[in-house]
């Protein structure tokens, strides 16, 4: 009897000393079951890139922002319900939702070549993806966009490397553009759709190498939304300029890259139903990034 009690106590001691399994607070994956989306999420933010199956509806590099309450990961749950029950499941509020309109734009923080004052979007959505590194609190992935012409005889391809960490409203991006070395430099822009047609933008903010907006939901096709959305882009390299270009309906961070050099920047978002409830609080958070 004493031996049994001793063994039980010893086992309890081993269990008490065993390290606890770290809670998973990030995820990123391709979603072939839903139009080849590529979804990313941490405990604060979520979003997706459009894949091949969605080309034409739309063909766009834009990042689709999903608002959510801080805490648990929700994207897999939303996709499961959307695939198996209601295709519009994630357009309804289940502690967050998709109420951001991308269409053919940079959405909530993509980049593209910016040639002769025009945004020259890829001819396809992303065509391949790769998880480069993943831990419970950090994930890094890459998306590939095949070559397209940004000007006559000037093909450009894009490898987008994205890093997402737990506890952050911001995502780091390194965009590698491949183009003829004879071009020298390629002008590029990372930006945010301004949604002037929907009249959603309440205020904008320009900082040092950053630009941010505070707006109402831009997609209310399923149900109205009374929360506010903050979106921002922050340059992570020198010699970038920022502007609100209402002719292009985008807030932009512009710069140049050489072949083999990345265009580095950060995009981020928040929802007023979470911890950041005002435009001033969001703009202050953006200013902390550089």
Characteristics:
eight-stranded antiparallel beta sheet, Beta-galactosidase, Chain A, domain 5, 3 helices, disordered N terminus, single chain, mainly beta, 18 strands, 44% strand, five-stranded antiparallel beta sheet, 290 residues
In words, what does this structure look like?
By secondary structure, this protein is mostly beta strands. The protein has a single domain (31-287), classed as Beta-galactosidase, Chain A, domain 5 (Distorted Sandwich). Helix content is 12%, strand content 44%. The protein contains 3 helices and 18 strands. It has helices spanning 2-17, 75-84, 279-287; strands at 26-31, 37-42, 46-49, 64-68, 96-97, 108-115, 118-119, 128-135, 138-151, 154-165, 170-178, 186-193, 201-207, 210-216, 228-235, 241-245, 250-257, 262-271. Strands 8-9-10-11-18-15-14-13 form an 8-stranded antiparallel beta sheet, covered by helices on one side. It is globular and about 50 Å long.
Number of strands: 18
Helix content: 10-25%
User: How many domain regions?
Assistant: 1
CATH architecture: Distorted Sandwich
CATH class annotation = Mainly Beta
């Amino acid at each position: 009897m004493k031996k049994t009690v001793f063994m039980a106590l010893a086992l309890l001691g081993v269990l008490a000393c065993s390290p606890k399994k770290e809670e998973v607070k990030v995820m990123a994956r391709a979603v072939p079951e839903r139009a080849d989306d590529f979804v990313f999420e941490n405990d604060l933010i979520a979003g997706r890139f459009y894949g091949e199956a969605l080309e034409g509806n739309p063909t766009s590099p834009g990042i689709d922002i999903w608002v959510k309450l801080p805490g648990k990961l929700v994207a897999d749950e939303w996709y499961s319900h959307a695939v198996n029950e209601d295709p519009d499941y994630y357009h309804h509020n289940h502690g967050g939702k998709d109420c951001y309109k991308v269409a053919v734009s940079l959405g909530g923080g993509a980049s593209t070549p910016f040639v002769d004052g025009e945004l020259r979007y890829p001819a396809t959505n992303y065509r391949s993806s790769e998880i480069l590194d993943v831990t419970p609190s950090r994930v890094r992935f890459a998306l590939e966009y095949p070559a397209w012409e940004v000007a006559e005889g000037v093909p450009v391809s894009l490898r987008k490397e994205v890093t997402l960490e737990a506890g952050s409203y911001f995502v780091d991006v390194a965009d590698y553009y491949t183009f003829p070395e004879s071009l020298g430099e390629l002008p590029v822009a990372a930006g945010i759709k301004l949604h002037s047609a929907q009249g959603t933008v309440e205020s904008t903010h320009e900082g040092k190498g950053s630009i941010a907006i505070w707006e109402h939901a831009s997609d209310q096709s399923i149900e109205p939304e009374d929360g506010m959305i903050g979106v921002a882009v922050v340059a992570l390299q020198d010699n970038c300029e920022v502007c609100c270009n209402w002719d292009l309906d985008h807030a932009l961070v512009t710069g140049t890259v050489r072949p083999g050099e990345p265009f580095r920047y950060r995009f981020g978002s928040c929802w007023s139903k979470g911890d950041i409830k005002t435009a001033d609080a969001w703009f202050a958070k953006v200013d902390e990034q550089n």
